[in-house]
Amino acid sequence: MDNYDVKDMSLAEGGRLRMEWAAREMPVLASISERFKKEQPLKGLRISGCLHVTTETANLMTTLQAGGADVVLTASNPLSTQDDVAAALVSNFEIPTFAIKGETNTVYYKHINAALDHKPHLTMDDGADLVSILHKDRRELLDNVMGGTEETTTGVIRLRAMAHDGALTYPIIAVNDAMTKHFFDNRYGTGQSTLDGIIRATNILLAGKTFVVVGYGWCARGLAMRARGMGSNVIVTEVDSLKALEAVMDGFRVMPMMKAAKEGDIFCTLTGDLNVIDKHHFEVMKDGAILANSGHFNAEINIPALEEMAATKRLVRPFVDEYTMKDGRRIHVLGEGRLINLAAAEGHPASVMDMSFANQALSLEYMVKNADKLENTVYGVPQDIDLEIARLKLEAMGVEIDTLTPEQEKYLHSWEQGT
Predict the structure, then answer these.
(1) Is 181 annotated as a binding residue?
(2) Fewer CB in a 10 Å sphere around the end CB: N or C, the chain?
(3) Buried b vs exposed e over 392-417: b needs ≥16 C-beta within 10 Å?
């Protein structure tokens, strides 16, 4: 193969072994892969994926390949690539991969365009960068595309905005909105992997620290739960009154960001929005404050403002930039403000990505079967797919549940019987 761009092909064997390790925790995807091999539902279709290049993603790619697809993969974040996995996809599976951990923004977009050169029939996105560039700069390719999927909250927000403006030219399934995705991947996966990234980057003790969770969506709920479990005093900031009320009822302190900025030792943003930690917050933070982000883009912390305010900046540990303010206070930003769970750690555990990527595979199959019936908008994952993934996961875990009797089914669908 000569159609790829990875850091070091000599890393391939280590990546293959780590893919194998992750696959042990992905039984649902494995069962789908076996069926795909027999039925070939994606035969002859070109798929361009813009996803975090991890062991779990690699196992999704091989599942799609088993289903007959011609797959190309590029990174959805400049710091999220696992270089050994990228090499393994090329060397062991002949999947063209364009991803290097730490790549510049210029190279990042060059790689996305390389994936689009594949002339995809289907797109897979994690943040909607590929879809956005396809619609803005590569419109000559749009006639080939029958549909796509989106993995993240941030990407779904962007795509719904495109659909609202009439800019979206093909249907997208919001994998992020599946119950078996956001209930588990977002809450348990992000909760654990975000703390993992913060601890790996800093080696700090969380017990006794004041930990500010910025936002209270599913990802933030998971992080708040895990930070409390590690002994932190957790503060939640929100702009949504319902989510703020839920955080209060879950036992967390809730306050405006300006007040939390004065109290926090560690801050982590998970909102999908812009500048949620801003200049006026930096001005009141404690000496030694630690800032991280676990939302998709590195826009949640206003790093350009911090750069302007700081007297000096230095890298004090891998993934830890120390900004010394003019008054001597030090503020630390982890992973350049990018996804800390992938910048400094390995991302979500494979067992939760098993369900998320099962949603990806089955949603693509659904799209192939139904694209001609769908409008150019964003759809949720069909409920029968969601329920089937939950059933397969329980089966793989050896968990049995009850089923309704005919009498119970009838009762739930009737109105005649009362007290």
Answers:
(1) yes
(2) C
(3) bbeebeeeeeeeeeeeeeeeeeeeee
